[in-house]
Amino acid sequence: MLPDQATGLLRNEADGAIAQLVLAHGAGAPMDHPWMNQMTALLVARGIRVVRFEFGFMAARRDDGKRRPARKAEHLVGEYSTAVKQLCGQTNDGLPTLIGGKSLGGRVASLVADELYAANLIDGVVCFGYPFHPAKKPTVLRTAHLAHLACPALIVQGTRDPLGAREEVADYALAESIDIVWLEDGDHDLKPRKASGETFAGHMETAAAAVERFSRRFVEISNRP
């Protein structure tokens, strides 16, 4: 399924939806990458409407097939904010609204979260595989804003994620608003090794279940019309 050309948003509706999630892709793959499709299907099955969009660098790649480097997260904040405001302008059913994404998409969502939360446009932020630091650069942290994040947040992270393993993250100063669900032996895509006894399918299910639980925190308290 490709995005609606008029809006640029790809919506997957859920029967009896309890919340909606704006889900952004990572640096190297589009919004309809198999990982994104699988997570979307799992979330929709749990009553979460998923709305996806592509950052400009990825949309341009789709148009002409030329691979472009991802832009820095800080330069994508405006695009993310615009997508959320566009969705809010189209939807008025009172569902709690979450934003988030995989890797880069989740990081951008976390950067814009407090602004949108203060404006009463969103209820929370969800990050799958948050890139706490660049690959092989554990001292170059991307956590400054996470130390004082006011917006409720959920991070679903593999314990051996090369961009933020459990042992590393334990030493970071993170806001109390952030909950982390750890997936045993998961990598940056949440995939475990076969020898661990865990499965990728099981980790994806666990991740989706965590998002559903997180979403239900806002079902009764969301005060948007």
Short description:
With 225 residues, the chain is α/β, with parallel strands linked by helices.
Assembly status: single chain
Q: Which percent range fits the helix content? A: 25-40%
Count, helices: 6
Secondary-structure arrangement, i.e. CATH architecture: 3-Layer(aba) Sandwich
Protein described:
This protein is α/β, with parallel strands linked by helices and 225 residues long. The chain has one domain (10-216): Alpha/Beta hydrolase fold, catalytic domain (Rossmann fold, 3-Layer(aba) Sandwich), CATH 3.40.50. 32% of the residues lie in helices and 17% in strands. The protein has a 7-stranded mixed beta sheet with strand order 1-3-2-4-5-6-7, sandwiched between helices. Helix 1 (34-45) packs across helix 6 (200-216) and helix 3 packs across helix 4. The protein is globular. The two termini are 30 Å apart. The relative contact order is 0.15.
Which structural traits does this protein have?
225 residues, alpha/beta, Rossmann fold, 7-stranded mixed beta sheet, 6 helices, 7 strands, globular, disordered N terminus
